[in-house]
Amino acid sequence: MSLIGRAQNLNISFLDSLKGDFTDYSIDNFGNIYTTNKDLIVKHSPQFDTLFSSSLKSLIPTNIESSKSFRVLIFDRERGVINFMDNTLTDVKGEIDLADLDVLQTVLVCESFNGNTFWVLDEGGQQLLKVNQNLEIISRVDNLNFLFNKKESPIQMFERNDELAIHFPNHGVGTFDVFGTYLKYYSIKSDWITIEQDYLFSLNNNEINVYHLPLMDQYASLDLPKNKYISFQIVNQKLYLKSKASLQVFSISESTNNK
Fold first, then answer.
1. Assign residue 57 a region: left if phi > 0, alpha if psi is -120 to 50, beta otherwise?
2. What whole-number distance in Å separates Cα of residue 131 and Cα of residue 195?
3. Domain end marker among 156, 185, 201
4. 115 Cβ contact partners less than 8 Å away, ≥ 6 residues apart
5. Please, are residues 220 and 254 in contact by the beta-carbon 8 Å criterion?
6. Fewer CB under 10 Å: which end of the chain, C or N?
7. CA 5 → CA 21, 135, 196, 234, 256, distances in Å?
8. Domain count of the chain?
9. CB contact burial 55-78 (16+ within 10 A = b; e otherwise)
10. Which residues contact 258 (CB under 8 A, 6 or more apart)?
11. HSE of 28 in the Cβ direction (CA atoms, 13 Å)?
12. What is the distance between the alpha carbons of residues 37 and 225, in angstroms, rounded to a whole number?
């Protein structure tokens, strides 16, 4: 998303809605939407047509990520298991038990774009691992107690702009570089976040505030329709808002405030 100028008014226009109480969802670079509900994964076209579906049976996805072309990452937090699927929702490697990496309590997993790798956050062991496609640990960051100290468990982990972000709700966001070196902590009370270019988008009290990084200057705000939104994503100039009953899609437009 391009945000240019001294100040912006951000406006949204409703496009469509996909009904369902989804556990999680992800949008790929082509605008396809992946949703999970219990053991069922469905791939929808940008027009919400069902393209593929798959029942995993033994695996109940907590999180799904489709940020890499032609690969979908699924994480079952309760069992500590991940699975990779292709873009037709066909199993690629079978279930991968993260306990084989000697982790105590994996809370989050996400893709990395520095090679064919992914990140594993072990809250029990207070460590962060980077793992390659052969399930070899290529980077390990220990002693993260300073990051977890007196905070709720993190609810998001994702890589953007060659940085890894870990979001602690109502506390802030810790960032690392692609090699696992700790960079910075942004203190912010937020229900959900995303980072696009040099801007952090924060959902709180049914409003999305936009902050300019790294100084966290408030840049713009966006009032949302009256609903209880749980999470959001911004992909290709579209805002996806998840509530208990649906996933709503809005277009985003920008107008410069010349005051």
1. left
2. 23
3. 201
4. 132
5. no
6. C
7. 38, 44, 16, 20, 7
8. 2
9. ebeebbbbbbbbbbeebbbbbbbe
10. none
11. 19
12. 25
Tokens at residue 126, please?
């207070």
Residues counted in the chain? 259
In the listed set 174, 201, 228, which residue is the last one of a domain according to the structure? 201
pLDDT tens-digit readout, 77-133: 999 999 999 999 999 988 999 999 999 899 999 999 988 899 999 999 999 999 998
Q: Is residue 54 domain-shared with residue 12, that is, in the same domain?
A: no
Would you give the DSSP letter of residue 37?
E
23: left (phi over 0), alpha (psi -120 to 50) or beta: alpha
Q: State the sign of the Cα–Cα–Cα–Cα dihedral 128, 110, 169, 216.
A: positive
Dist. CA 257–CA 214, nearest whole Å: 22
Write the DSSP symbol of residue 91.
B
- Relative to beta strand 117-122, strand 106-112 is antiparallel
Cβ-defined contacts of 172-176 (< 8 Å, 24+): 173/200, 174/147, 176/128, 176/141
pLDDT tens-digit series, residues 181-226: 999 999 999 999 999 989 999 999 889 999 999 999 988 888 898 8
Phi-psi region of 126 (alpha: psi -120 to 50; beta: other; left: phi over 0): left
**Do the beta carbons of residue 109 and residue 97 sit within 8 Å?**
no
> What digits encode the pLDDT tens for the residues 230-254?
999 999 889 999 999 999 999 988 7
